[in-house]
Amino acid sequence: FQDWLNCTALSPNEVAAGGWEGVVTMWNLSNRQNTGVLEQVESSAYITDVQYNTDGNSLAYAVSNGNAYH
Predict the structure, then answer these.
(1) Under 8 Å CB-to-CB from 29, ≥6 apart: which residues?
(2) Per-residue confidence (pLDDT) for residue 3, from 0 to 100
(3) d(CA 21, CA 47)
(4) Residue 47's closest CA among 66, 70, 20?
(5) Nearest-angstrom CA–CA distance, 4 and 18
(6) What does each of the 70 residues of the chain score in pLDDT, given as a tens digit?
(7) Per-position DSSP letters for 40-51, written without gaps between them
(8) Which helix (H) or strand (E) holds 62?
(9) Contact between residue 70 and residue 28 where contact means Cβ atoms under 8 Å apart
(10) What was the pLDDT predicted at 17?
(11) In terms of DSSP bridges, do strands 47-52 and 59-63 run parallel, antiparallel, or are they unpaired?
């Protein structure tokens, strides 16, 4: 992880991680299984922040060029 991990977020059931490769990956906390990957949305941009909403059902992330996605 240390080579690509830039930010993480926790929800009650999941952890999300984003990094230098420009993707966000989510894992289920109870079974440790990968639950999804948000593919790179912009070339040469990396993920700067990931956040779940207060109930943990929605994820938003920011990209190094200033764009944000929900």
Answers:
(1) 10, 13, 14, 15
(2) 67
(3) 8
(4) 20
(5) 8
(6) 456 889 999 999 999 999 888 999 999 999 999 999 987 777 788 999 999 999 988 999 999 999 999 8
(7) --STT--EEEEE
(8) strand 59-63
(9) no
(10) 95
(11) antiparallel
Tokens of 24: 């966000």
Phi, psi dihedral angles at 6 (to 5 degrees): -120, -30
Whole-Å CA distances, 36 to 28, 48, 50, 62: 9, 18, 14, 17
- Residue carrying the six token digits 């990931």: 50
Q: What is the pLDDT of residue 52?
A: 96
pTM for the full predicted model: 0.84
Residue with tokens 């922040």: 49
CA-atom Rg of the chain in angstroms: 11
